[in-house]
Write a structure and sequence with these properties.
It is built from eight helices and 16 strands. It is of the alpha/beta class and 288 residues long. The protein has one domain: 5-stranded Propeller (L-arginine/glycine Amidinotransferase, Chain A), CATH 3.75.10. A hairpin with a 2-residue loop joins strand 9 (157-161) and strand 10 (164-168).
């Protein structure tokens, strides 16, 4: 599977400029590589509806129809239209799963068990098997915290390599859920390194979840938060010590974090030998 650090084209939604102006200025000033603003997305969370790049020529795209948007269908972007514009021809699957719930390793992916709630018409074995075939990777299932309305794995942990993950400070979770996480770690034979996590514990906010960083080429773009100077310093130091061969760039997020997402959520990238971007541009297309 193509890892984010191997990609060379980075995308954000143009809507960030419109909806989160102050956060966007800080992101724009921090991103050292060229990026593309994609028009005609219906929300900013492009990680969730864009395809997964399996190899240079192969992409897999899952159905973006999350239960938390059942009353807001206007926020669901047209995946096929966007892929067609980008000249990507993925294999489409009817399995309902957000891209934020697919944490990629080279030969393994982590997905929370929320996927089974989102696809009640199918049994868990068939879901897992189809995903493994589409991504050419082993699927590792992790539990979902009861009050997590998204159920995204990228808010919990990330791969360093196929045998080691970085994971939120386990003390940030209730004791019973902590046991479930440790059980999953042991059953999947994973090593883990804990990183700071200071969640607000309200329904939607992503404030305090440093794990949702953007990984792109030689950079780790790390979210940091207002009035959390001590925690921010701890997170920067910890991530820098883990990724010693990468440049860690902290970015302050306010309104984006309050809306329930962070830097991995708002970004998507892929690998191509043809650089379609010569600068920071807006790629627009019109619906037919």
């Amino acid at each position: 599977m193509i890892l984010d650090k191997e990609t060379n084209i980075l995308f954000f939604s143009k809507k960030i400029k419109e909806q989160h102006k102050e956060d966007w200025v800080r992101i724009q000033n921090s991103i050292t590589e060229n990026y593309t603003l994609l028009d005609n997305t219906n929300d900013i969370w492009i990680r969730d509806f864009m395809p997964i790049q399996v190899n240079y020529h192969q992409y897999s795209c899952f159905s973006y129809m999350p239960s938390y948007l059942k009353n807001n269908p206007e926020l669901i972007s047209n995946q096929k239209e966007i892929c067609k514009y980008l000249e990507i021809e993925p294999i489409y699957s009817s399995i309902k799963i957000d891209g934020g719930n697919i944490v990629k390793g080279k030969n393994r992916v982590i997905i929370t068990d929320r996927i089974f709630q989102e696809n009640p018409e199918r049994n868990s074995l068939s879901i897992t098997k189809e995903i493994e075939e589409l991504l050419n990777a082993e699927v590792l299932i992790f539990p979902t915290e009861k009050d997590d309305f998204l159920g995204h794995a990228d808010g919990m942990l990330r791969f360093i390599d196929d045998s080691t993950v970085v994971i939120n400070d386990l003390k940030s979770y209730p004791r019973n859920f902590r046991r479930l996480i440790k059980k999953a770690i042991i059953s999947h034979n994973l090593n883990y390194i804990e990183v700071p996590c200071k969640p607000k514990r309200d329904y939607i906010s992503a404030i305090g979840f440093y794990i949702n960083y953007l990984e792109f080429q030689n950079f780790i773009y790390l979210p940091i938060f207002e009035s959390m100077e001590k925690e921010n310093e701890e997170a920067i130091e910890k991530i820098s010590n883990i990724f010693t061969n990468r440049t860690v760039i902290p970015i302050l997020l306010t309104t984006i974090a309050q809306d329930g997402g962070l830097l991995n959520c708002i970004s998507w990238s892929y690998k191509t030998s043809e650089h379609i971007s010569t600068g920071n541009e807006i790629y627009e297309y019109n619906k037919q």
